[in-house]
TrEMBL record:
Family (UniProt): Belongs to the HSBP1 family.
One CC-aspect GO term: cytosol
Name of this protein: Heat shock factor-binding protein 1
Gene name of the record: 101895324
Function according to Swiss-Prot or TrEMBL: Negative regulator of the heat shock response. Negatively affects HSF1 DNA-binding activity. May have a role in the suppression of the activation of the stress response during the aging process.
Length: 84
C-alpha cells in the first residue's frame, strides 16, 4: 500500500504539478490531480495562517512594550495611571 502511494506521489510530481500542462486521462489520474491541487491549497493556506499568527503575536508584543513605555513615562512625569 505504501509503495503504491509513493508511486502515485512520484507520478503526480512528475506529471501533474501545477505548472504542468498535462491533462489527466483517467479516474485515477484525475483523483491524483485533484488531491495535488487540494494539498497545494492547504499548504498555501497553512503558510498564510502561520504568517498571520506570527504577525499578530508580534503586534501583541509591540503593544505590550508600548503600554509599558507609556506607564514608565507617566511614572516619570508623576502622573498616576488609570485606576482598574
Amino acid at each position: 500500500m505504501t509503495d503504491m502511494k509513493n508511486e502515485m506521489d512520484s507520478d503526480l510530481d512528475q506529471n501533474y504539478s501545477l505548472n504542468s500542462n498535462a491533462d489527466p486521462k483517467n479516474m485515477q489520474e484525475l483523483t491524483i490531480y485533484v488531491q495535488s491541487l487540494l494539498q497545494n491549497v492547504q499548504d498555501k493556506f497553512q503558510t498564510m495562517s502561520d504568517q498571520i499568527i506570527t504577525r499578530i503575536d508580534d503586534m501583541g508584543n509591540r503593544i505590550d512594550d508600548l503600554e509599558k513605555s507609556i506607564a514608565d513615562l507617566m511614572n516619570q512625569a508623576g502622573v498616576e495611571g488609570p485606576e482598574k
